[in-house]
């Protein structure tokens, strides 16, 4: 009886308070769910202290223990940083941080001679202050993660000066992209009439394609050194494989990632007939600065032409299928979100729920609807994309197997897992919810199943 009375009382509350309460409730529900999953996985890290029998042939005890301790430290860091983030977000909502920042932005605009009619200008100031606040509050966590956890486990290669310079540069580049794009988007929404959501969707689609096209040529080189992969056996084999599967490869780059971390990675980008592959130098023995230092210290000559040279080819093959499919899904999602935004933007109670009683700024509407109102939908979409991505990973592994590369992929996956101190044992529920790539053991078993 008491529960039903509480529900009745809740529905008798003003719509603004119901919306605000629902947003907070869902936010903490997601946080508690994520914490529950993280604790399940943490229990795996703490109790699995010996290499499981099925991994005995592919992982030694020393590497297993290193990866276990590394993941434990990351788990602890994730718990405290996640708790801080949730409390910070809650306090911002409870104490009216968003309307306060909007009013502060208005005052700054007023000092510069811009009145309240210059909503887009005020929106840009709001974005600048919001991203500055986010960068400053996130800085201590980023410093601890880099110079304590990553340093402790041998991955960090940055100096404090390099880190700070990188952070400042990243902030400036972000503003140079975010502010012009946001101003144009807001202008399109303002003048677009009844079908503004179509124009806004097309605009964001074009911007995404442009950014994907120019990223490695103009944006990424601001942070890391990109060089074309030199002529040689590896480049030749990548090009031959790309041609054999009709992958429209135009360039292959090596990025000097070893200046910031010894983690290895690779990715491809581009669209239509213009695809490019980027390999981290830490992925390639003969190109890594770290490996060169080791070779010079030990008097070794860099090795080339060995069996492992083509082991990095398959991840590019698998990412081809994953990336295109996810982009298609996200494009449709973007259109749906803008359509729903058009439906909801006129609801004054949405603005009132977050402290905007006298005005309904377009940027604030985007923030409220996309970040808060759509949050349940975003969680479901995220999970579906994770499931889809895992499915594509298995399909890509099967494709590599069909090409006769199962043995090479098997070896490459083990090396990548070892180099990055990935822990091969996962809680099934944590893995299902979070892992866009299947756990190592599942992929290895799948490679050689009938």
TrEMBL record:
Localization terms from the record: Endoplasmic reticulum membrane
Keyword Hydrolase found: yes
Region Disordered, annotated ranges: 297-319
Membrane-protein topology: Multi-pass membrane protein
InterPro entries: CAXX_Prtase_1, Peptidase_M48, Peptidase_M48_N
Keywords linked to the UniProt accession: Endoplasmic reticulum, Hydrolase, Membrane, Metal-binding, Metalloprotease, Protease, Transmembrane, Transmembrane helix, Zinc
Family indicated by similarity: Belongs to the peptidase M48A family.
UniProt domain Peptidase M48: residue ranges: 229-287, 331-447
Any one cellular-component term (Gene Ontology): endoplasmic reticulum membrane
Cofactor(s) needed: Zn(2+)
Protein name: CAAX prenyl protease
Function: Proteolytically removes the C-terminal three residues of farnesylated proteins.
Species assigned in the record: Prolemur simus
Biological processes, Gene Ontology terms: CAAX-box protein processing
EC number: 3.4.24.84
A Pfam family the protein falls into: Peptidase_M48
